[in-house]
Amino acid sequence: MAASAPATHTTDFPVEGRCSYYVEKKKRFCRMVVAAGKRFCGEHAGAAEEENARKRILCPLDPKHTVYEDQLSKHLKKCNSREKPKPDFFIQDINAGLKDETEIPEQLVPISSLSEEHLENLIKKLQKAGEGLNSTLKDQIMSHPALHDALNDPKNGDSATKHLKQQVDGKHRKKNSVFERLQIDIQHLCLNKIPLLSKEKLPVVGIGKHLCGVATDLALRCLVETYAASCEERNEEPLAKRIKNDKTGKEINTVAKKGNEKNVPEKWSPVAGIVIALCCHHRCDWRHYVGKEYFRALGLGAVEFHYFQRMSSWATCGMRKTSLEASSLSTKRKDEQNDDSEEHDDGGCRITDESSGSAPGFLTVEEKKKIGHLCKLLIDQGRVEYLQQKGFSPALQYYTDPLVSLENVLLTALPNHSSSPETTA
Questions:
Q1: Last residue in a domain, options 77, 106, 140
Q2: Separation between Cα atoms, residue 282 and residue 355, nearest integer Å
Q3: Does residue 134 fall inside a structural domain?
Q4: Which stretches of sequence are listed as region Disordered (predicted)?
Q5: What residues form DSSP beta bridges with 23?
Q6: Cα–Cα distance list, 399 to 134, 136, 404 (Å)
Q7: Residues 282 and 134 placed together within one structural domain of the fold
């Protein structure tokens, strides 16, 4: 056992204190820490001679990991995959939208199985629906001063610079800030049941960094219908409005009292704003899509949506030729880099022929990319129309250079105080 060899360069021997099991798929030894006097971690203990007497079985709650058969009952009580009590803000499918299963065909063939005539008809429908859409979005590329020094560091290569540009500073150091992390699927999240929001009656700003496909629609419905509509039905006003003192720079909380209208905004909106970096349109789902009415008004339905969201991957998947590809960066270093830096670069997910379908041969690469972008734009336009109907002023814009991320479109929305949003779902 070569204990003195650095972990990053050791390939023939396991690192001291780490599991001795060789993971064939990853071409390296397991990196899990082992117990004192043991050669294998708990997951690979069955490979050790001293552990052969005890049998490991798949966990019935999550087959992705194993457990000793004689300790199953004990494990089930503390397994992270066990069903946990649901919080008050969990309401099953509250943001899922209306289910209309009659519109969704039971089985649709992949794009690669469509006839050339069928595909041409779909493309014609797409182009007709896209007539009049503004495909030239406004550039709103900004950079935080905190990153300037790091971005201009001559030691950084293309990969490091790209990684820095993709980062968002999540370390909020403001002394009086309160943070609460909710581990819940957005599909089931009821914001007005969260104690802090219901008690303080605070306006919400929805921020999403690359909410994959359907998650964007779930988030919009969570904000606009679940939270905003419920607050308006109760005619709630904010408990307090933060006023900034120009001299001290400190924030003072002033409670809105009867007869003191200066402390209350003329028109208070439960949702003060929405900012979502869009991506992974190929992962959208008609059942949850917020722009159904927009599609129907264009004479389109679930079938067209299904193929458009599949074809949207043509805009970002496997057809790009950027300066980053032409650079001389070694591909051997990819495993050592942070996987998050490459997140969503190729359409968000590893797309296979089964999910998106192979692009037809009668189209050129540029034609496929244009069709893919038009599919994305049409899906996003449905979201824009939805927000407009709900009393918001939405906009689509570029927030970063395509060399940094091909998924570079941002959806923003502010409440439109000149019109009252619809209260019906």
A1: 77
A2: 8
A3: yes
A4: 326-360
A5: 28
A6: 17, 13, 10
A7: yes
Rounded Cα–Cα distance for residues 71 and 306 (Å): 46
CA torsion 156→158→161→166, rounded to 10°?
Answer: -150
Residues 59-65: what's their mean pLDDT? 90
Centre a 10 Å sphere on the Cβ of residue 46 and count the other Cβ atoms it contains.
15
Q: Which residue has the tokens 């058969």?
A: 69
Please report the pLDDT score of residue 318 as a whole number: 54
Among 176, 185, 228, CA closest to 415? 228
Judge whether 267 and 357 are in contact, CB under 8 Å.
no
Domains held by the chain: number = 2
Mean pLDDT of 276-286: 93
More confident residue, 303 or 148: 303
**Domain around 280:** 84-156+183-233+268-318+363-417
Tokens 């790209």, located at residue: 162
Q: How far apart are the first and last CA of the chain?
A: 64
Q: Are 324 and 158 in contact (CB under 8 A)?
A: yes
**β 204-212/271-279 pair status:** parallel
Q: Which two tokens stand for residue 322?
A: 């950027």
Please check whether residues 192 and 100 belong to one and the same domain. Answer: yes
CA distance 310 to 111: 8
The amino acid sitting at 349 is C
pTM over 0.85: no
Distance CA(176)–CA(178), nearest Å, equals 7
